[in-house]
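Hi team, as promised in this morning's meeting, here are the two structures we talked about. I've kept the exact order from the run log so nobody has to guess. The first one is mostly here for context; it's the second one we should focus on when we meet again. Sequence first, then the predicted structure tokens.
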Amino acid sequence: MKNHLLLLASILTFTMNAQLINEFEPNPLGSDPSSVSMEIKGSPGASFSGVVVSIDSDGADGNVDRLTAVTGNFDANGLLVVSVPDFENPSFTVILAASFSGNLGDDLDTDDNGQIDDTSVFTSVYDAILIPDSLADATATSYATQLGGISLSFSNDFPISEPYLLFRDTFNNEIFTVYTGGSPTRTEIFDSNGTNMTSSFSASAFNSSFGEVNATNNNITLSNNNLKEKLDMLRLFSSKGKIKSSQGNITRVFNAQGQKVLNENLVSGVYIVIVVINEQTQPVKFILND
């Protein structure tokens, strides 16, 4: 029987598209490379074939400035790392789709009104994210939201306008961007609304983790003192591939992709364990290393 690392997480709902852009570098540190890594999140063991498209979003440009096919198999944690051409520095909209019938250099917004003229050029859009480098660009286009994705807000609360890293929280898929710069140099993390969330993460979140499970928000808010005391005493441990609890009852277990799994014959990895204590449902992050 082994004791394992236990962290608390305020997550009760797990949402996930079939595939998501899980991590990449919008503007890598140092000189621009010819290619960068992108991590896609999907179903463990499944194969994947699709395209990554970037639309220039400085103003309402609308030109396709990056286009590449990506293929591979998701690993046991549901992660696939692919190589894509280095992106033009933000602002741009990155899209993950099953296919794209257009071509590199196409203008998808010929009237420059901030909307894609014909979204049927994309088949099965899995994810779309606008990464702006100015307040004007954050509101100039709706390419990402038009395709069912998200337009990140721009924050003036940092001297550098372009993030060097973007990642999704492991358990709720919320997007965070990481910036570094200033004098003296500082590194900070912002959520999709432009709110500074640096204190909610460990320093490991400042670095890319391609092929590994992403960081997660460590904050939790507890109002019930008796419940807090029991949570303070809560310990999870594993025995022969099954997660057990020192307090309350385990009702459900989810893997890193938010999929419910049987609490038996579990392999090493990251899990969210739903524990009921004092008739209160609490999610607990557990790293199993059997």
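And here is the second protein, the one for discussion:
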Amino acid sequence: MVGKIPQLGSKCKISCDKFGNYVMSGPLPIHYSFWMKRRNFLLSMAGSTLGLTMAGRGVAQSGVVPLNISEIAPGIHLIRNAGANIVAATTPEGWTVVDSGASAAASMVSAALRERAATPVQVLFNTAWRETHTGGNEALGGQDIRILAHENTRLWMGADFEIAWEDRTHLPRPHSAQPNETFYTGGDIDVGGLKVRYDYLPQAHSDGDIYVHMPDHNVLVVGELLGVDSYPVCDYVTAGWIGGMLQANKNLLELTDNDTKVIAAYGAVHARATLQAHATMLEAVFQAVTDTYRSGQSLQEFIASRPTRDFDDRYGNPELFLTLVYRGAYGHVRELGRIV
């Protein structure tokens, strides 16, 4: 497999050998050079693929099934069964949408928005790079609208790369589907009187995660940063890790009160209590993987210790989660403390 990163120029290429190791050629920004070196090592730890994917976390939902649409606040709708959850707010100037769902559901989502307000989409946020969050970007307007995302989300969407634990190669998305307004921190916008705040939460699910907050309606969209009926994915290949996920959840809790409507990537509307329970689980597993590294235990020993035993009834099978947590922590051993 050989790919290019269009945003970095045609001389910049990523190639992947048969073992899943990345080989890069051409000039790269400092942050890319640093991350890819670390990623090569982490991928080399994988050995063979896990045989586990994110199919249960969005691919099944991306088929042609009826959308589940509910108004969660005046003029703000939650659209489910379209891949990752979509939040759409109507204003006199047009729609503001958070995530566009999977491509298979894009025509249904567009039709649903037109049925509720015959105004175009003005602003679209992508909270993550995955196709379940960005597959409808073109159908909702593409480059004719403002597509906001973290710069790293744009880079991943334009890259050709393999995620070994999924046993899947992700190809560059068309330019028309990519974000056209990127940022590194966060900001505020006003669309037809709708106030929206957004900010970056580093290295949690990936290195491009953001939240989107509509404070006047007390709606907080957190995407992949909250696992509801399954454990979250800390994708070390795209620079996610449990320490970042834990800190992200702590930051999100500071934005909520008991009346906040919290929208995860999947599932219904949740309350602050769900986010707090998630943070409690992450804290326990973070401490467990820290202790594992300090004692020099293997991945198999970490899983066998059952660090999620108190949470499995709520989140299900922990195997993929624990594997990603263990492998992702390797790139952060200094942050774990008292190891090197």
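Starting points for discussion:
The chain is about 30% helix and 25% strand.
Residues 1-52, 55-63 have pLDDT under 50 and may be disordered.
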